[in-house]
Amino acid sequence: MTDFTHKEKEYFMAQALKEAQKSLAKEEIPIGCVIVKDKEIIGCGHNAREELNQAIMHAEIMAIEEANTKMGNWRLPDTALFVTIEPCVMCSGAIGLARIPQVIYGANNQKFGAAGSLYNILRDERLNHRVEVETGILKEDCASIMKDFFRKRRIKKE
Amino acid sequence: MTDFTHKEKEYFMAQALKEAQKSLAKEEIPIGCVIVKDKEIIGCGHNAREELNQAIMHAEIMAIEEANTKMGNWRLPDTALFVTIEPCVMCSGAIGLARIPQVIYGANNQKFGAAGSLYNILRDERLNHRVEVETGILKEDCASIMKDFFRKRRIKKE
């Protein structure tokens, strides 16, 4: 497990937030992700479901695909995944399948979160891979970009 | 929900088994999947994790991507997903995200299955999409291709 200082954690979460801004610019749900190895980013992703018309194209999936390609390996040992919002069921499953040992996320997702909220897939003793999970880094920023997005969408619909 | 005859279900599961054979030919865990709309196949997939070096490249994910591309839509209403083995956590999450209403799988996966074995994600009342699930179609064929694969792999390692 990589030992990050609090400043380093905030730095990488800020990079994930920059990724979330890419979703926002395309009117997508603004979630961003970076995967870090030896304190360097090896994969970036942002939610692009509407743009690419792909149900699976969440921030974490895009970042895992990029990191797998970069490393030439489907396993991602000694990496840490930073994501602005708690991963969903699909992404939590994907994190385990990619053998990512460490996840740091910004804000909880009470409706869809699978890293503690609805499920606790990343820490399930029955699965063959368990993940160290930390939360709360730049929590307000990660939550507020989501709240603003949904507020604006509601106003638009009214 | 599509109303399939038993013969039709066996036909589409046989197509999924043909997909699983593609994995087997590349010495990958042999799981195959087809997605059907109006009784026509709109997406095929086979497990290709090792070949493509992508942790997420399970049969269901490959089939969902193909169906999304073909339909030009991340939503797949009025479709049925046939897969030889019970979907894992990631794939069960992906099936929900793609709004697939119907899943038919061959054999259970006691170790990783998330459609009844370890989890029951496809029928979770808390999530915003629920799926009609049926199992047991060509169960012996779907299970035996897996057993043969793992038996041969064990012998190879000894």
UniProtKB/TrEMBL annotation, chains A, B:
Note on cofactor: Binds 1 zinc ion per subunit.
Keyword Mitochondrion (UniProt): no
One Gene Ontology molecular-function label: tRNA-specific adenosine-34 deaminase activity
Active site annotation, chain numbering: 60
Keyword terms of this UniProt record: Hydrolase, Metal-binding, tRNA processing, Zinc
InterPro entries, alphabetized: APOBEC/CMP_deaminase_Zn-bd (IPR016192), CMP_dCMP_dom (IPR002125), Cytidine_deaminase-like (IPR016193), MafB19-deam (IPR058535), tRNA_aden_deaminase (IPR028883)
EC number from the UniProt entry: 3.5.4.33
Keyword check for Metal-binding: yes
Domain spans labelled CMP/dCMP-type deaminase: 7-134
Cofactor(s) needed: Zn(2+)
Catalytic activity: adenosine(34) in tRNA + H2O + H(+) = inosine(34) in tRNA + NH4(+)
Binding site for Zn(2+): 58, 88, 91
Top-level class of the enzyme under EC nomenclature: hydrolase
Subunit structure comment from the entry: Homodimer.
Function per UniProt: Catalyzes the deamination of adenosine to inosine at the wobble position 34 of tRNA(Arg2).
Protein family according to the UniProt entry: Belongs to the cytidine and deoxycytidylate deaminase family. ADAT2 subfamily.
PANTHER family: CYTOSINE DEAMINASE FAMILY MEMBER, TRNA-SPECIFIC ADENOSINE DEAMINASE
Name assigned to this protein: tRNA-specific adenosine deaminase
